[in-house]
User: What shape does this take?
Amino acid sequence: MSQPPEIESQRQRLEELRKLVNYHNYRYHVLDDPEISDAEFDQLMVELRWIEAAHPEWVTPDSPTQRAGAPPAERFVKVTHPAPVLSLGNAFDEAGVRAWFERIAKLDGRVLQSEFVVEPKIDGLTVVLHYRDGLFVQGATRGDGEVGEDITANLRTVRALPLRIPVQPGAAQAPAYLVVRGEAFIPIAEFEAMNRRLEQAGERTYQNPRNTAAGALRQLDPALTASRPITLLTYQILAFDDPRLSPPQSEQATLAYLRSLGFPVTPAEVCHDLEQALAAYDRLMAQRDSLPYEADGAVIKLDSLELQASLGFVGKDPRGALAYKFPAREVTTLLNDIGVNVGRTGKLTPYAILEPVEVGGVIVRQATLHNFDYIAEKDIRIGDRVLLKRAGDVIPYVIGPVLAARSGRERPFTPPEVCPACGQTVEHFAGEVDWYCVNAACPAQLIRNLEHFVSRSAMDIVGLGIKIVEQLVEAGLVRDVADLYSLHKEDLLKLEGFAEKKADNLLQSVEASRSRPLARLLTALGIRGVGEVAAADLAQAFGSLDALMAARLEDLQTVEGIGPNIAQAIVDWFERPGNRQVLTKLRAAGVWPAAQKVAAMGPAPLAGMTFVVTGTLPTFSREEAKAFIEQHGGKVTDSVSKKTSYLVLGENPGSKLDKARSLGVPVLDEAGLRALAGESHV
Ligand code: IVH
Assistant: This one.
């Protein structure tokens, strides 16, 4: 039966949108080289969802909308792997690697001439991905190597995973049946950013990337998996079947082939002999801390898959590959005591005071203990021998006590009832795990508060580092953030290390910060849950501090990203007498950003555009121009590239103008910018 033409064209648009979304998703998550802005991408998804909502019968499991769609499952179903998902033998030093090489060379002389491939050994969760005719049909955990658990719905949410091959027109066709193995993990930077967001929202943070990724993939609710920044790298074909095609015969060819199908693949170095493989290990080892993921070693593989197969395996370890581990970053040491830090928001955080110990070349004396619940859950006691881990850039943390080493003399820890810095009773907020000191005059908080207030993303008071902050507080010159604006030169000159020039410079940077836009001042105030993003949204929605102070709980919650907890924290903050006093002082000191235009609801006129500003504009400062562009949905970057939509030009521009001209980037003046943003005249 033929369809009416409008239905037919919607159907075509749907197909087109799926291809576009898949393609841009691949550019972003696999190639790390996006061609369109996030806003443009979101627009494609909105249109796709809209068509699918009108035609639910058209929704297919490989539609990009289905990445986060499935309802929670009751339990996991077992999956038998098409081939054993093997493990790896380990070596811990060069001698171990050479011994392995000699063993296998004796078994098969071809080893002596063999090439090697060296890859990072990624510390993630092994996943097994099944494709039929290019469609992702099933994904499983490794399990015992023979049988794993079906986590298909969770894996669908991983954006780097191709749901349909080819991911882009013209790319390689998929074989009829293909099973690929890889590691799913959370990149370190994403992990840290996620923890910062959780921290700001007053929620519990996660311990380490590996457990967080594994936990999110091995639980039953795909929506939760979707909310974690999990990504993927693949390196092995476990099964391949196609009457027209034959599978790759070497490690190198496997990686190239997987890449051509649209999979993200592990980086690999091809080595002509064992010496080169050892050198490749050294290079990886040197990069260990700057790799974007946690790696616990290098995997050295014989390049020829035929040779690997003919060597067979010992137990579950194939002879043709070896894990050469990095020096351990897990050690045990004594927990001498538990200290408690008071953060900027008054949050109390316990930390371990350790018997100093070397972990991966660094002496560690302190480590995080996350929160008081963690100490109780893990039953960590003072005097315990504890297992400690330092991985990548992640702050060292205590994994747990070594129970076998208990003598019976260890002491359980009791969380403090009063703030260790000021002695005031600590408080607990409903729905939060942490304890807080709510004394606005608490000296520990004041120092952290000031540190935050002057920081780059807040008021950006250049030259006011932690040392000076401490000096100012100790000398009693600063009792709250507003006092920064009434500092006098003669007071500064009395401080150690201050001479004319240093005092002048400091006063000048304080002065320069008076005119920071509202979003920055809001960030600077350090309201619980209000980081840079929330501050920008609030500034955009309310336009002035006066309007924000007058906002009710329900007004605040109309702002996207402001939930009931943060809204309550904002209201509470403005109600506290100490904070009101600070605001009165700031207003008197002229630190009170002028009301700005409240952004109209609806599509932002500059959405999807990227701007670079150069030279002196007639009325806007650089910061104000940036705020203006962002308020209207645009983005501002520092350097001109092909992707720049417009260069905003003021007087005395720098080399950016030449660059823009050479790339054909259009140029606007301030009036042009305002017009583009929908202001009819200046
Ligand atoms: S190759 C026969 N390559 O490490 C092939 N494994 O201790 C055997 N792993 O669970 C695996 N990165 O999942 C290989 N680049 C890499 C890897 C890797 C991480 C995992 C693997 C296995 C474990 C072995």
Notes: The first strand starts at residue 78 and ends at 80. The mean pLDDT is 89. The radius of gyration is 29 Å. The first helix runs from residue 5 to 29.
